[in-house]
Write the structure tokens for this entry.
Amino acid sequence: MKIRPALAAFACAVTLALSGCNLVGGSPDSSNATDKVTVTVALVPDPPGASQFYRQQFDEFEKANPGIAVKVVENPSDQQLNAVELMFQQNNAPDVFRAQDDGMDRMAARGWVAPLDEFVTPDFLKRFPAGSMDPATSGLHRDGKLMSLPLVWGPWSTLRVFLYNEDLLKKSGYDGPPKTWTDLEQMATKVTADGKGKYFGYAPTAAKAVGVEMLADTAVPYSVPATGIDYRTGKPATSSPGLLEAVELHRRMQAAKVMMPGWESWDGSRAFKEFAAGRLAMYPTPPWHVAEVRKLAPEIKMGITGLPVPAAGRGAYLPLTKSFSPLWSMSAKSTHKPESWKVMDFLASEPFHNAYYKKFGTLTALEGAWKSEAEKNPDQAAILKVAQETMRRAPNPALATTGGRAMTDALAAKPDLKYTDASFSSIIKNQPFAPAAAKLDQDLQGYLDKTTADLKAKGKEGSAKDLTFAGWDPLKDYTPGG
Amino acid sequence: MTTTVERPLEKIPVAGTSRRRPGRFRKHLWSYLFLIPMVLLFGGFTVWPMIASWWYSFFNWDGVGTPSDWVGLANFREVLGADSFWRAFWHSLVFSLAAIFVELPLALVLAILLNNSWLRFRNLYRLVLFLPVVATTAVIGIVIAILLDPAGGLVNRILLDTGLVDQPVNFLGSTSTALPTLLSIDVWKGFGITLIYWLAALQTVPKDLQEAAAIDGAGFWRALRFVTLPVVTPIAIVILLLVFQRSLNTFDLVRAVTEGGPDYATDVVPTYIYRYAFDPSLQAPRYGFASAAGVVFGLLTLVVTLLQAPFLRRRLGGGKA
Amino acid sequence: MNRLVLRRNIWHLLLIPLCLVWIYPFVWMVSAAFKTPREMLIGGLSLLPDEATLDNFARAWTTAKFSTYTANTITFSIAVVILVLLVASTAGYALARPGLPGKKVLVGVLIATMFVPHGYTIIPTFIVVNGLGLGNGLLGAALAQAGPALVVPVLLFMGFFSGIPKELEEAARMDGAGYLRTYWRVMLPLAKPVMGTVALMNFIGAWNAFFIPLVFTLGNPDLRTLGVGMYGFYGQDTTDWTGLAAAACISVVPIVVVFLFLQRTFVEGIAGAVKS
């Protein structure tokens, strides 16, 4: 006891000396007293290793723009939005920040996102594929104003591919991937039986059987699994035969122990590990799994193809509901907007996108930055081909009308009305899905009516009409107003 | 030896002055001074945020700016009417039952054993039992997933090889085994903390008595019953509360291992609240609703604790007088 | 005597297998830190890496910014421990005085708050610290971390002090020691086991803390701690598991050192003090 307080005090003094006045803290940037303008960028170190990548890139940017210093604030992916929100509340907002997809709308709704139109030049727009920056379909505009810049390739977020291990299929006597759901069921059953517990035919990608939705997207309009509503009619449609069959297909395979055991608790990045380890023969997936498999198993004979379709034929294509997903936004409270724009301009430049593609293998928003290289890479070429063949433009109520956004927001706030939990439960408990689906449709209709009434009472727009696109054929490209 | 014996002596002078209030307060002036730092720190960083969150629970609020959309008791009605909340509450309760009836007594037994100075390597044993506490939960999550994998995981391989099971057990993927599995991992991960608390509690037992008890085999149980346990009791109550509270707040482990699944079979109240307050996939967080769920959870556990109170008071005996 | 030795050694037959099983996942974590990502994720179950690599540690050092973050973490953790020890021991001592008016209410409030889940009170806490102007320093973070962590230490100190025989204190008082002196010279030294426990638990808690150091250093990320730095290994979709395992190993070392250091306080006890 006589020694310890002294020791503790000593240790404390040492660390205090080490860390300077860290305990009390001070103004964030007192050291940068030069005439440089500091632009703060709040980003997410994603994917792993991105920390160093961004720093390097910004160092190059600073060399080219001697008047600007870029300060990076990193936040964990999970906490980025919360952290940026708190920074705003602290009057310590970053000048440029990453707010992805709905996250951008969340920030914009608070009035924290600056429109970028005053900075955008025709030359700037030419960097993007022709027509992709149309305010009605870009996905980056709100009320006709450009609110965000993209990072990844437009189709990247909604594209789904089907991966198969050629060697394992060959062992069971199959030369190619399944074309239909019936093929899939038969082949998966055979492969699992031949695997004798060493490898398995199929898994629905991750917990909650997310594979169901991917397959269902080839049978019913994408909006049915995504929101429960059929955008052709504006009515609840969880009971659509295509979705029912996608669930029943998985239920049968689960009951017959065809699917790889344990998938019920897989996280989103488990399937590619099992596939790379040669223990899983086939599964549907977002395209980013491809690069991950390659990293773990450079030699594996991986086939990349379109998703199998219902035996009766394709009922829908994968949706392309917008050109891009929002990612980089500028703070409305920034006091250095022109300098911040320079940083954003850099983040949307061809050299940056090419470097990003080279480092992480992600297809980025500026196709010109990687297209020729990607076509030489078999994996990436296959992804491009699947996108070409299985994706079509689809209507997006959130971009079409204010009422549409209000309605989709309301639906997104009620995840328990989605098919997901009910279908997962019927798959693992081996119960028919149809009764649960009928109940969901009924609840969904009630919720739609209530939402419409609530919106009306508040004097806002929004009704089932905003979710209805009568002329839409999910087997054809959709053009707004057409 | 125990506090009860000394109390009457102490009380005599107090009884004389306690009638005159000013004198009583002056007598305790120092005690109140000593309490000030705690009241400030605790009031500012625990009580105030708590009261604030009660206030928020009456609003439909997303956590930014000043709450303005007053909804009265609607959030509470929604919480109380949600089956998913009650399911999560039940799971949280199961976690605390496991901690109190499995972890707590087991840790006491090992603490008594590891408290013996004649036991060689006892420091090493303590360290080993303690290490899981400081192992990063996220990494433990993936290690556990690999070890328990039904398709070739080590545990299933051992179970199959020894013939204990004839089919791999889907530990984390089946709704019937996921919760018990998670409970075991939770006990494993938290055991070291409880052990340390018990060891500290045992230090309050004078050493010569422990030694005497250990050498005389017959005296051991009597010493345990009449010396160790009574001395340890006041702290034991705190340890019980502590373990109860920690188990109710199990969060990291559930997030890292099952994320509440499959089919919400392992959903607990903290993960439930997190989904509404902080889940990044939410368009707008329902902070007001999450606060209401927190308030209801707090009140419910308080009720559960009060139900235990008569039992605790009896156990406490003269300790609190 | 021989029989006694035998009987005592029998315990090892129970303890050794238990400890081996107990530590297995932990050892697995350590071994993963030396594996390549490929071997960890799709390799076998072997504990020994096929080809041991130190890459993960190098990555951990740079990604989690260990060089800067370690100093912050030490400052933060020590500040939290000192705050908690001082505040909780004084409060526990005061609350252990017999017949203190208002004691029951205070203890009741303390216990009641134990059951309120804390994670979501971060926003009001943030508002308090911001209001005090401590929003961008480790002191604000330390206060926010120490505040809710007080309940258990206060109760532990209270339980401990009220268990100490009163004649000890009477003796001190007769020697002319005042309230403060009795607390500091007589009672606090006796409380070593509790102090050790409280210090250890809060040190671990602060060392691994995530939410508070994240939220309270938003404007000044250079002040973040290792608990936050660890999240550099997570991407939106994928995680650098071997890097994370390496970082986990590095960050466990100081805690083990602290544990071994505080071990003593669990061993010594108060036997000598009672006799004198």
